[in-house]
Amino acid sequence: MSAGPAPTCAVPLPRAFYARPADQVARALLGQRLCVEQGGRRSLARIVETEAYLGVEDLACHASRGLTPRTRTLYGPPGTAYVYLIYGLHHLFNVVALAEGEPHAVLVRAVEPLSELPARTDGPGRLTRALGIDLTHNGIDLSEPPISILPGDPPADVGVDRRIGVDYAGTWADAPLRFVDAASTHLSRPLAR
DNA sequence: GACCGGATTATG
DNA sequence: ATAATCCGGTCA
After folding, report:
1. What does the domain layout of chain A look like in residue ranges?
2. Which terminal Cβ of chain A has fewer Cβ within 10 Å, N or C?
3. A178-189 pLDDT per residue, tens
4. CA angle at residue A29 from A188 to A125, to 5 degrees?
């Protein structure tokens, strides 16, 4: 039995990483690595696009309608997964941020494959399909299998933009809460400016 | 129990 | 431009 330290690639980001407002977590998540172990397959991908959702005041955030069965996981501890189905078709993967009882979250909108993947990963619905993420992962801790987030190299250049698909959210629709690795060729959409 | 809309994607 | 497709929120 070796008592040596685990390989670096297996050490997830600490809980403290997520314990700050979602805009900070969204930016910091760029370049980190998403690891999904599913049905004997291990997928690895680099996070290149995120969006922050800032709790009850943010009209684009699901929590702005209060605590319901669906948004319950949003109110859970930081560093857990919030997964939901949209348009009856696509699973969207979010990371809970800030603190228990504070419904902040970061939507992961695009990743770059670091291992062979069966589908495109540039888009929030595509990446969950490629990685096999679905509702069964809602609420799980992201510091251990089957889904974990591991340290990676942050991008040299971060682009900031308004969020996609939240035109209904009044003044919040224009808030600069979308973050991308400006050099990535795997964004769901190019930067607006 | 009925109705409606959505943090999207593929296709025309 | 629009269909696909269904969960959960809202109102009754």
Report:
1. 15-179
2. N
3. 999 999 999 999
4. 35
How many angstroms separate the CA atoms of A177 and A90, rounded? 22
* CATH number for region A15-179: 3.10.300.10
Asked if residue A32 keeps its beta carbon closer than 7 A to nucleic acid strand B, the reply is no
Helix H, strand E, coil C: the string for A5-41 is CCCHHHCCCCHHHHCCCHHHHHHHHCCCEEEEEECCE
pLDDT tens for A153-180 read 999 999 999 999 999 999 999 999 999 9
Whether this prediction's pTM lies above 0.85 is answered by yes
Closest by Cα among A141, A135, A27, A123 to A76: A141
Evaluate if the CB of A178 falls below 7 Å from strand B: no
Which nucleotide across the nucleic acid strands is nearest to A62, CA versus C1'? Answer: B7
CB A135 within 8 A of CB A61: no
